């Protein structure tokens, strides 16, 4: 599955005075007339709840210059207990009033949800594009580029160490049995994204 040309995006939402966002890897154009796209969002993300409630979002298309701390900021912490924008020195918003990332992005796309489909762990939101603008000509980052050039390489593991390692962020669960419902405390991915050490 990692051979598919996934992009990496920051999906941002707003509920009242609460700005939030998360990292997603699925944003796809569906139709040209009218211009529609779909985004898949994990239900465990706080951003999912806001999007389900408000029906509006922005997609910041990340570029190859994006530093790893952006993924930590928007992907490794929950908006339930963290202000995702607390350390940002910008407050750029589109006409829908939702923030976006003006740095390390080549475009921003605003959407208004017209349909939602439940796929168990994720919801697929189909949206009409309400605004779109190009911010730079820098190439978009892909999952492959992220893993090869941005994500820090895992620390050297003790060859005798037992347990499981998260393929997404490198977190090590040091136990002989990984519960089927285990969720990584760092990146929030489930047991299916872990592999056994040794």
| Termini Cα gap | 23 Å
> What is the general shape?
globular
Rg is: 17 Å
User: According to CATH, what is the topology of the largest domain?
Assistant: Pnp Oxidase, Chain A
Average pLDDT taken over every residue = 91
Number of DSSP helical runs = 3
Low-pLDDT runs of 5+ residues are: none
Major sheet strand order: 2-1-5-6-7-4-3
Q: What is the second-level CATH architecture of the largest domain? A: Roll
Strand content: 35-45%
Structural class: mainly beta
Helix-residue proportion: 10-25%
| The CATH H-level homologous superfamily of the largest domain | Electron Transport, Fmn-binding Protein, Chain A
Give helix and strand order, one letter per element, not per position: EEEEHEHEEHEEE
Name of the CATH class of the largest domain = Mainly Beta
């Amino acid at each position: 599955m990692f051979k598919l040309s996934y992009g990496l995006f920051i999906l941002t939402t707003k509920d009242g005075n609460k700005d939030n966002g998360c990292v997603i890897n699925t944003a796809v154009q569906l139709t040209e007339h009218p211009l529609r796209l779909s985004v898949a969002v994990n239900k465990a993300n706080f951003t999912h709840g806001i999007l389900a409630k408000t029906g509006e979002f922005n997609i910041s298309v990340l570029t190859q210059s994006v530093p790893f701390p952006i993924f930590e900021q928007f992907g490794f912490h929950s908006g339930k207990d963290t202000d995702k924008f607390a350390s940002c020195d910008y407050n750029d918003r589109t006409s829908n009033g939702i923030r976006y990332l003006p740095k390390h992005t080549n475009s921003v796309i605003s959407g208004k949800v017209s349909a939602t489909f439940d796929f168990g762990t994720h919801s697929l939101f189909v949206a009409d594009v309400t605004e779109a603008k190009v911010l730079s000509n820098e190439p978009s980052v892909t999952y492959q580029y992220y893993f090869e050039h941005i994500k820090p390489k895992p620390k050297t593991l003790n060859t005798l160490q037992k347990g499981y390692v998260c393929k997404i962020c490198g977190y090590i669960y040091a136990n002989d049995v990984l519960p089927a419902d285990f969720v990584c405390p760092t990146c929030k991915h489930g047991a299916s994204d872990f592999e056994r050490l040794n």
